[in-house]
């Protein structure tokens, strides 16, 4: 670990980056892409999740490597950027959009919206609203059903509900989106992840059976934590995003062999023997009890969705709290840290965090080789 972060530090100094930044290890990213290629079940395509990879060069790099033009999208400004960047891109919404948002996108966006976006429908009411929108705009709208296979976050819960629907004339059903993010969290007492995934796959098959044969182009299941555990079911594609950079929330058995590829790097502004405000005796007593560190540092920035990884043993302290300006971090007594060194923190998630620092510094072959611009937040 020490050698790796020493190399990252030298690369940042050589690139004259002395502020908080998001560093992407392209070599590790390529290793994670190779893991997906190796472990993806035959017959499954990958749909890249744009909210988890909110950087067009990053999405393009992965899409080229995997040979996919499928994307799962969540936010109209990002959707428009992906449409513009990928003329042959096929986009599926991963959450249902308010019909007003869909109308604004369809009337203000480029012509590509009309044929390449598949909207998500979770209720009969939303289907009717989108049907009215399609009629008002005199166009055909593609859609997929959001179906509940155990997550219970919304969507149709019974295949009979879908069979009973009358689909408006200007609406074309493309298939289903079945998300089972709950599966890895099911404790062994209740059958564990394996049983939950089998149940989710079986439930998805029931929904597919409720569709006509020409309504089964998109049979989507899975997310980063589960995509590589699927195979042999009715699905023809899985969604993957965060796994490629492996934030800490994705340290799951289904992603064994993947490596973290994204880190926040930030200069250490101060290294000191910390003291709390007030009488020094209070700080000394808390230190003797192990409640307050004897050594610490202040970072340039802070309060990010991260877990500290280097210097080893670095961690926040509840008595001082968090700061987005100068974050205090406690250090082990033997830590050798000085101002000007870099601290490294691992994002807990990739969505939003990757967009927080502007252009991403790309690390490869021991140096910062380029900067990748990120997509807008809104």
UniProtKB/TrEMBL annotation:
Domain Alanine racemase N-terminal residue range list: 25-244
Pfam families for the chain: Ala_racemase_N
Biological-process GO terms, alphabetical: D-serine catabolic process
InterPro entries the record matches: Ala_racemase_N, D-amino_acid_metab_enzyme, PLP-binding_barrel
GO molecular function: D-serine ammonia-lyase activity
Protein name: DSD1 family PLP-dependent enzyme
Species the sequence originates in: Mesorhizobium hawassense
